[in-house]
Design brief:
This protein has nine helices and three strands, in the order H-E-E-E-H-H-H-H-H-H-H-H. The N and C termini lie close together (9 Å). By secondary structure, it is mostly helical. The radius of gyration is 17 Å and the shape is elongated. The protein has a three-stranded antiparallel β-sheet with strand order 1-2-3.
């Protein structure tokens, strides 16, 4: 697959597994009082969140507003509905695919043994946690693990990623579930 095809497949995998949220995802950012939206949890006033909103007809009125303002005005469901329209979904797919092409694919290309398309897509679906960590995680394991084997890749993400990400034992079960869900999604692809 080309880099562009891989980026699109990774974006569809992130969407298909729901690891970052659904199209109508809307909550308050943990970094401040602004909306965190969509399949990639885009956020920020005058940033990525507002850029997404500018691509959706009718969503312009939410640009530059805080999450609490949207919530307190009773317009939260309206914004969720706009994000979930066909135009909102297509905008999110396009932006996420571009993000994957610019951020995740270049880092994954630095992992020499990651040359199986399904394994590449699976690894890409983990990149929202940190593309730096995913790259280093795989580079540090490619000599002792066959990262060209989807089952082995699932197992190392399941059993070792929470340790490499240094997030603590409390995330082990969540990452194990994510590894299994991502594996099930990617293994079902007809590529």
């Amino acid at each position: 697959m080309t880099n562009e095809q891989l980026a699109k497949a990774i974006a569809l995998g992130i969407i298909g597994t729901g690891v970052e949220g659904g199209y109508d995802n809307l909550c308050s950012s943990t970094a401040g009082d602004y909306p965190c939206m969509g399949v990639s949890s885009w956020e920020g006033i005058n940033g990525r969140g507002d850029s997404l909103l500018s691509c959706i007809d009718g969503a312009e009125k939410f640009i530059g507003r805080t999450y609490s303002d949207i919530r307190d005005s009773g317009e939260k469901q309206e914004l969720k509905d706009l994000l979930n329209t066909e135009q909102g979904q297509l905008a999110q797919q396009a932006i996420l695919t571009q993000d994957c092409l610019e951020l995740y694919v270049p880092f994954l290309n630095e992992v020499e043994s990651l040359d199986d398309d399904k394994c590449y897509i699976m690894a890409g679906c983990w990149c929202p946690t940190s593309h730096y960590v995913v790259r280093n995680f795989l580079r540090n394991r490619q000599d002792s693990n066959d990262i060209r084997n989807l089952e082995i890749l699932r197992d190392i993400f399941r059993d070792q990623y929470y340790i490499a990400a240094d997030v603590g034992e409390q995330y082990a079960e969540g990452y194990a579930n994510r590894a299994e869900n991502t594996y099930n999604y990617v293994s079902s692809l007809n590529i």
